[in-house]
């Protein structure tokens, strides 16, 4: 899935180039409130348009292009909207939060204009109404994550909302045995890869998942299938991470490219290729991204990898083994269930089963991540006879920051909720794709070097470091 982004980026670049040369040689038009949506038009946050008889409100500033019609790009537009009325208050200022075991206090900057008061919503539910610029939501449980929207109002109407998310204190779960440091993916093959030491200093992150090891001319491992294991950009990045006190996980496979699973003819040959990488890099964790039809849906290759991992563990008892694979919104599909059941049947010593809960038609990415993870928990309990706590301790989440390939939106606030849920349940791995994209570019779409949304530099990495 992640490597599908490479192909998408190339296609998008060609599309944009074509549009740039064929677009009318006129300046982008200013938005007209409640006008029909049109391409080559500048839209500000809060702009309201109609398209095919329905109203939409812009949630990111951007200049529209053909193919970016509101119902097709939920990262830029939300359904619904009304003609803003003169006299409505301005948007409240940024929100700060303070938490206790059973309450979340919100404080925000005052709105401009005439303000009667402020309404605090959780989803569509009105939680409280106040006249000051602060409110406290009480009666909550410990270690609960909540998201709120504050809107100013007067006798004319409500302002645009300001969002915030927070988690109550009192989380008692100690780190489970075998927990791995939060380790976002870093890919040296594209996306203007940042200097890892710079990111470490800025965020406190201590580990990265380096991607990807592929096959180079048969059962021979290489970075991306063409860069040497030692002496190149990947090895230099790993040396810098270790020199700064960090560790690395090494990811094998991914969505596309020539992979070792199909290229190596036997489990022993596969394990031998993995051993070359371990000897060259010295990772704390080896992560096997088993994806697509050539590995995930090919049961002969699935079994070859699983049996090879038994040899890897025999030769490297202190290196943790992770398998990472896609999921539906409710948990692993039939191929994922088969992988889990076969790992149990073959007695493969897998430390962590990580799912990738994105590119699956998600709408509420926090709840979809929770639902998919609960489905994984059920599959592990069915296969291994685990308790809930034992299953959680063998689970991980690998997300995609900002806009996914399918335009699903994971904001920093949502990623914080996902992280806090994972910590509260005792999951042992958290990653996302990718550090290369952990930079702002609101309205930029799906890109290799930024998230497509408004954020601070390295904000997702800083959140992940808190795992």
UniProtKB/TrEMBL annotation:
Superkingdom field: Bacteria
Coiled coil residues, start to end: none
Protein name: Carbohydrate-binding protein
InterPro entries: CBM5/12 (IPR003610), CBM_sf_5/12 (IPR036573), FN3_dom (IPR003961), FN3_sf (IPR036116), GH (IPR017853), GH18_Chitinase (IPR052750), Ig-like_fold (IPR013783)
Domain Fibronectin type-III: 88-174
UniProt keywords, alphabetically: Carbohydrate metabolism, Glycosidase, Hydrolase, Polysaccharide degradation, Signal
Lineage: Bacteria, Bacillati, Actinomycetota, Actinomycetes, Streptosporangiales
CDD domains on file: ChiA1_BD (cd12214), FN3 (cd00063), GH18_PF-ChiA-like (cd06543)
Entry-linked Gene3D superfamilies: Carbohydrate-binding module superfamily 5/12 (2.10.10.20), Glycosidases (3.20.20.80), Immunoglobulins (2.60.40.10)
Signal peptide: 1-27
Pfam families: CBM_5_12, fn3
């Amino acid at each position: 899935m992640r490597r599908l982004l490479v192909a998408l980026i190339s296609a998008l670049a060609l599309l944009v180039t074509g549009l740039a040369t064929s677009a009318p040689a006129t300046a982008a038009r200013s938005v007209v409130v409640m006008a029909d949506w049109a391409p080559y038009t500048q839209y500000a946050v809060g702009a309201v348009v109609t398209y095919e008889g329905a109203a939409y409100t812009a949630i990111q500033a951007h200049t529209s292009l053909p193919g970016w019609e509101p119902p097709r790009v939920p990262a830029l537009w939300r359904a619904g909207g009304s003609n803003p009325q003169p006299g409505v208050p301005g948007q409240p200022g940024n929100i700060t939060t303070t938490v206790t075991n059973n309450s979340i206090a919100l404080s925000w900057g005052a709105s401009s204009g005439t303000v009667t008061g402020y309404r605090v919503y959780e989803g569509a539910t009105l939680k409280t109404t106040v006249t000051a610029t602060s409110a406290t939501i009480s009666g909550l449980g410990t270690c609960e994550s909540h998201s709120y929207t504050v809107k100013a109002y007067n006798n004319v109407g409500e302002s645009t909302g300001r969002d915030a998310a927070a988690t109550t204190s009192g989380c008692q779960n100690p780190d489970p045995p075998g927990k791995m440091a939060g380790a976002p993916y870093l890919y040296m093959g594209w996306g203007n890869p940042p200097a890892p030491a710079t990111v470490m200093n800025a965020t406190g992150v201590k580990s990265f998942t380096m991607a990807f090891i592929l096959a180079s001319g048969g059962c021979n491992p290489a970075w991306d299938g063409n860069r040497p294991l030692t002496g190149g950009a990947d090895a230099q990045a790993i040396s810098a991470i270790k020199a700064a006190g960090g560790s690395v996980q090494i990811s094998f496979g991914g969505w596309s490219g020539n992979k070792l699973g199909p290229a190596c003819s036997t489990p022993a040959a596969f394990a031998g290729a993995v051993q070359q990488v371990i000897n060259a890099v010295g990772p704390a964790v080896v992560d096997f991204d088993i994806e697509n039809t050539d590995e995930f849906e090919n049961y002969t290759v699935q079994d070859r990898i699983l049996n090879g991992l038994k040899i890897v563990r025999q030769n490297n008892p202190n290196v943790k083994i992770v398998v990472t694979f896609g999921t539906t919104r409710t948990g692993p599909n039939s191929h994922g269930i088969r992988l889990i059941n076969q790992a149990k049947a073959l007695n493969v010593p897998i430390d962590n089963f990580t799912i990738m809960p994105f590119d699956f038609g998600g709408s509420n990415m926090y709840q979809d991540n929770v639902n998919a993870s609960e489905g994984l928990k059920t599959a592990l309990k069915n296969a291994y006879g685990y308790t809930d706590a034992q299953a959680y301790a063998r689970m991980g989440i690998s997300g995609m920051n900002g806009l996914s390939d399918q335009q699903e939106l994971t904001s920093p606030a949502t990623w914080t909720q996902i992280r806090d849920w994972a910590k509260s349940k005792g999951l042992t791995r958290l990653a996302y794709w990718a550090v290369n994209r952990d930079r702002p570019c609101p309205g930029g779409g799906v890109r290799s070097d930024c998230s497509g949304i408004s954020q601070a530099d390295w904000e997702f990495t800083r959140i992940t470091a808190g795992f």
